């Protein structure tokens, strides 16, 4: 595991975008698992800027969204695919034929999960995935449990997760969904280049726990990344405050 400590969120976003661009330059048809939420917005802003400056071509990449709220149509402003269009896809030269995402309003969600998992396999697996860490230690929507599922599946979100994300649904009459579709742990663990982005002091305790946890704990899903062969943490100084200095030195 490698750790890159940046000054602040802005630098985290820039460094992460530069790493994405470098990988696309090495492999123009990169398979990219796209994250949603507040953490990657700055990265997307830099990716759009770098595209406008002619530094990157997105026309050959293939994308899969990391997760989606159950019941939301693609044109729902609260959906993650809507988020992707707003912050990224509508501003660069992505070929929409290469864009896939969980159809969370499907009548048969189990069949949709199987379709999505197979599509990832057919694409040769994920080349890059980027995630943050949920307040309960989840990655994507793989919530703490007695066991973690390997491939794309429907999950009931923990109350901690719903509380963390509730602000985004403040204007939604129906409130926040109770379930989500998420990529599974096997899909994450087989990703060739895996990144965790965190910023702010509220993430320090989670990162401290990550490096204190010696076992792979399904009740702390991010701990499984300790077994990943190529994972890199891009974090700011506040988030890194809980990591022992000897760990930072070892992982630089």
Describe the structure.
By secondary structure, the protein is an alpha/beta fold. The chain has a single domain, classed as 3-Layer(aba) Sandwich (Rossmann fold), CATH 3.40.50.1360. The protein has nine helices and ten strands. It has helices at residues 9-26, 41-52, 80-87, 109-122, 159-165, 185-189, 204-212, 237-240, 245-251; strands at residues 2-6, 31-34, 62-65, 67-69, 99-100, 128-131, 153-156, 179-182, 193-198, 231-236. The strands form two sheets. Strands 1-10-9-6-2-3-5 form a seven-stranded parallel β-sheet, sandwiched between helices. The protein has a three-stranded antiparallel β-sheet with strand order 4-8-7, covered by helices on one side. Helix 1 (9-26) crosses helix 2. The longest helix has 18 residues, at 9-26. 40% of the residues are buried. The model has no long low-confidence stretch (mean pLDDT 95). This is Glucosamine-6-phosphate deaminase. InterPro entries: Glc/Gal-6P_isomerase, Glucosamine6P_isomerase, Glucosamine6P_isomerase_CS, NagB/RpiA_transferase-like.
């Amino acid at each position: 595991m490698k750790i890159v400590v940046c000054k602040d969120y802005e630098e985290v976003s820039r460094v992460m975008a530069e790493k994405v661009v470098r990988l696309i330059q090495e492999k123009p048809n990169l398979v990219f698992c796209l994250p949603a939420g507040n953490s990657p917005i700055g990265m997307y802003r830099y990716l759009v800027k770098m595209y406008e400056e002619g530094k990157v071509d997105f026309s050959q990449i293939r994308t899969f969204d990391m997760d989606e709220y159950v019941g939301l149509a693609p044109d729902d402003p609260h959906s993650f695919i809507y988020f992707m269009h707003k912050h990224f896809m509508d501003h660069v030269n992505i070929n929409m034929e290469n864009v896939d995402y969980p159809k969370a309003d499907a009548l048969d969600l189990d069949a949709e999960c199987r379709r999505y998992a197979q599509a990832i396999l057919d694409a040769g697996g994920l080349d890059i995935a980027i995630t943050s860490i949920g307040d309960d230690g989840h990655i994507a929507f793989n919530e703490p449990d007695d066991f973690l599922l390997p491939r794309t599946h429907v999950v009931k979100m923990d109350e901690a997760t719903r509380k963390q994300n509730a602000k985004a649904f403040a204007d939604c009459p129906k409130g926040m969904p109770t379930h989500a579709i998420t990529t599974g742990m096997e899909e994450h663990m087989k990703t060739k280049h895996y990144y965790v982005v965190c910023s702010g002091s509220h993430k320090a305790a989670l990162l401290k726990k990550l490096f204190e946890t010696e076992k792979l704990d399904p009740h702390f899903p991010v701990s499984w990344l300790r077994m990943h062969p190529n994972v890199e943490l891009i974090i700011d100084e506040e988030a890194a405050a809980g990591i022992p200095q000897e760990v930072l030195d070892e992982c630089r």
